[in-house]
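Weekly structure sync, notes
Attendees: PL (lead), two postdocs, one rotation student
Agenda item 3: pending single-chain targets
PL asked that the sequence for the first pending target be pasted directly into the notes so everyone works from the same version. It is reproduced below exactly as submitted, 511 residues in total.
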Amino acid sequence: MSPALRLLILSLFSLNSALSPASASSAAGSRSILRAVNDDNADVRDFAVDLNASSFDAVLSDTPATFAVVEFFAHWCPACRNYKPYYEKVARLFNGPDAVHPGMVLMTRVDCASKVNTKLCDKFSVGHYPMLFWGPPSKFVSAGWEPNQAKSVIRVIDDGRTADRLLSWINKQLGSSFSLDDQKFENEHISSNASDPEQIARAVYDVEEATSTAFEIILEHKMIKSKTRASLVKFLQLLVAHHPSRRCRKGSAEVLVNFDDLYPLDILAADRQGDQDVQAALQKFQICGKDVPRGYWMFCRGSKNDTRGFSCGLWVLLHSLSVRIEDGESNFVFTTICDFVHNFFVCEECRQHFYDMCSSVSSPFNKSRDLVLWLWSAHNKVNERLIKEESSLGTADPKFPKMIWPPRQLCPSCYLSSSQKNNEIDWHKDEVFKILTSYYGKTLVSLYKDKGIVGNDKISGALEDLVASTNALVVPLGAALAIAVASCAFGALACYWRSQQKSRKPRRSWS
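Predicted structure, written out during the meeting:
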């Protein structure tokens, strides 16, 4: 018997029972119970991520969560409506920007009553509603489930009827002791060792979050003006060539190749009335993709609500960019980073301090090593200042106090034997450079490689390679080479670019 036929029989049986006179009193009782549940959960928001046949694989393949729960339901099903508040109570702990335990479990839902999801629900042999599955997110991609299937890593959750029982089931799988009463920033699973190489591997998701947040801030504050336009274009070039996330490289490229049309100089200089339309047009672009729920702050999550997060993610982004460049790009990248912070960072005091450090550099950088070490030194100077300020004001994160990096336990060889001179550390800079390039380079994206997210993407590669074609750009030599050598099929890419231009109006030139 097919799953669809089983569901039809179950539905007819339920309808027949509901219409019988004997069921009237029980139905009334069920309605009163349902009202009580709904009243008790009136403030419960939707935290579970709604998936459909087109988004199912994309979201589950890209999420940073270690495990996923997929609930198959039908919107017309009374039991499903009754169960939703319980499911959302658990989802609140794991999903969204206010997640209590982010990055561990992705809670999702699929409506089998929607025709577009029929085949997807059939693949998982959904025989009743609601039906819950558990497993690593990647194992759901292009997969299915059959009853009595041997050695399947996807499991049916057989004891999740209430929120307490569902969370208890999840706790058994994770070896955790989560509670429905847990509040944000109060869990024992936050690692206090921010220098752990295994932790930095997960920071790639925070780099994506910081990139998206920075882009949103720029749009929200209408910071793109005639005098800041060139600064943003150069930073987008840098992201396209060297961002550690492929989906951020792709998203940045899409913004970049459309930038002339969205923000032409003549409109910026003369027509301020066009801001709202331009803003709406640019908001359609997702600089790091749109499928994965954000707000995890996995590596950069503080133990207090107002610590770390975006500022940490932005620092990790800048360090990760610095270790990926070639020597010929070093001075371009230095000025690009300095100008970006000066023009687009909204914390005035932080912005001015960083710009002062940039202004103190008297000669251009000729080597990428010099830039990597300068940015590291600048970050330590910022931390030195904040250590004193936070100590006097009592605003430090108790679990993540500012430190001079790298700590001795992470890199003992970075410290020379005469480690202190006038309260200054005597660094072995060759060793510091090694750990910086490893920590913010290979280690940072190791999780991506394990999940198979790093790789060739024809459309993404095409957009990256074609960045040099837009009139708005003057790509530095190193970046141009980095983009050009990404694909050997340059002729095919050129054809792709020309085909894309057929539907585009002529670009305005800008120099």
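Discussion points:
- Confidence is low (pLDDT under 50) at residues 3-43, 186-190, 454-511.
- The beta strands are 49-51, 67-73, 105-111, 131-135, 155-156, 415-421, 424-427.
Action: rotation student to compare against the earlier draft before next sync.
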